[in-house]
């Protein structure tokens, strides 16, 4: 653009320009228009790029929150299962299941022993002093 402005100034001062320079001066307005269009296009692309980055960050945050909620749900389920299994290690619960009383279904001793063994393997001992 600076070169074209120089040609334009030289032409105004009456200097002779070669054919290529004269054609370039004639296209000065077209070049300026194209440069302005390119600047606007660059601004548009920049804005779109920023919008895309924001959307990506938002999606990542949403994905992180969903993963966190899924992990919480898994942990809750594990804790609930552990709680149920730990109850099988208590004598009064075992008696209820052996007799099928107090709302418990009847479990044969062998099945109850399996549950008690599984509870001991999967549930860490709690220190009640802590």
From TrEMBL:
Keyword Coiled coil in annotation: yes
Pfam families reported in the protein's UniProt record: Caprin-1_dimer
GO biological process terms on file: positive regulation of canonical Wnt signaling pathway
Record domain Caprin-1 dimerization: where: 61-129
Domain of life: Eukaryota
Molecular function GO labels: signaling receptor binding
Coiled coil: 4-58
Record-linked InterPro entries: Caprin, Caprin-1_dimer
Keywords for this protein: Coiled coil
Record bears the keyword Oxidoreductase: no
GO cellular component: cytoplasm
Protein family (similarity comment): Belongs to the caprin family.
PANTHER family the record matches: CAPRIN-2, GPI-ANCHORED PROTEIN P137
Protein's name according to its UniProt entry: CAPR2 protein
